[in-house]
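stage 2 :: seqdesign
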């Protein structure tokens, strides 16, 4: 891959705004894909959608410290900038925004975005402060880039819901697109964190997808009791001897509140640690209701 086909890389907000000013003057529609790098096909599916729908695509690559808890993997999070830029070149991305921490959180930074109830359960409960960090960085990226459209993955279902809430509540002038989960051939949801897994762990991690498939199948067969479904999912997951379940949740897809009975499309969401790598996945359970 030659350097010339790579996106332009900018590291400061001033350069970013300067570069985008001419795009905006020409009336170009700008799409933003926020990422933390270590790009895989899941990220690239968002990038391709942005390329198809916009005149100019900006991909941000920033491992946002404020969304990691003190015991989490900020220090070891995979950083693969050169390979990322090659992957973005392959998609024809125009601009990569790769800021350093001081550019994003200047001295004295003290403003944080708190989204209410949809940020509280599931990931919000397991990772206190996580969505405050996410909402803050996403709002900052929206303000820095000024894109018309931003692209997110359903892989982080709750994150997309939190951002949608923020966009509505704060009247942000941006459209959101949420793209389907991209999986490996065997069903494992693609994730930058999959790189932490050993070969054996990678195999055992398939229990997440299998449990979601089972949940879908049970609902298709007429099972309507969320507790029964969650128990059956748990039984699949615990066949992996080192699996540690953070949650298995059957919830309303809009509010994330637990459902008492499955009478409409329901979100099955789970977070499980395999070899101490925390993996999340989800699936909308649908049937003829
Ligand atoms: P991350 O780099 O993990 O912050 O992810 C950046 C964006 O890519 C988020 O909107 C994620 O939801 C999305 N994403 C990550 N993995 C996948 C996947 N397997 N399929 C679709 N989108 C994904």
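stage 2 :: out
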């Amino acid at each position: 891959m030659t350097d010339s086909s790579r996106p332009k890389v900018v590291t400061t907000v001033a350069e970013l705004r300067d570069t985008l000013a001419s795009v905006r003057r020409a009336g170009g529609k700008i799409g933003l894909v926020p990422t933390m790098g270590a790009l895989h096909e899941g990220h690239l599916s968002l990038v391709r959608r942005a390329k198809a729908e916009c005149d100019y695509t900006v991909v941000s690559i920033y491992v946002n410290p404020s969304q990691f808890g003190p015991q989490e993997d900020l220090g070891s999070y995979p950083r693969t900038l050169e390979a990322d830029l090659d992957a973005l070149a392959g998609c024809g991305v125009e601009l990569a925004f790769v800021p350093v921490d001081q550019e994003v959180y200047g001295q004295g930074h003290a403003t944080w975005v708190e989204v209410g109830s949809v940020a509280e359960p599931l990931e919000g409960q397991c990772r206190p402060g996580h969505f405050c960090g996410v909402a803050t960085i996403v709002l900052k990226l929206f303000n820095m880039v000024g894109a018309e459209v931003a692209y997110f993955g359903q892989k982080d279902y709750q994150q997309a819901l939190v951002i949608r809430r923020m966009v509505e509540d704060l009247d942000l002038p941006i459209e959101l697109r949420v793209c389907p989960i991209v999986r490996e051939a065997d069903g494992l949801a693609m994730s930058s964190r999959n790189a932490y897994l050993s070969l054996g762990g990678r195999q055992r991690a398939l229990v997440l997808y299998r449990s979601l498939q089972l949940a879908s199948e049970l609902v298709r067969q007429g099972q309507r009791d969320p507790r029964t479904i969650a128990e059956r999912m748990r039984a699949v997951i615990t066949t992996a001897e080192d699996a540690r379940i953070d949650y298995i949740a059957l919830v309303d897809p809009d509010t994330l509140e637990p459902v008492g009975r499955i009478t409409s499309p329901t979100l099955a969401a789970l977070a499980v640690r395999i070899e101490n790598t925390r993996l999340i996945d989800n699936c909308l359970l649908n049937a003829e209701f």
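stage 3 :: structure notes
- The CA atoms of residues 60 and 226 lie 38 Å apart.
- The mean pLDDT is 97.
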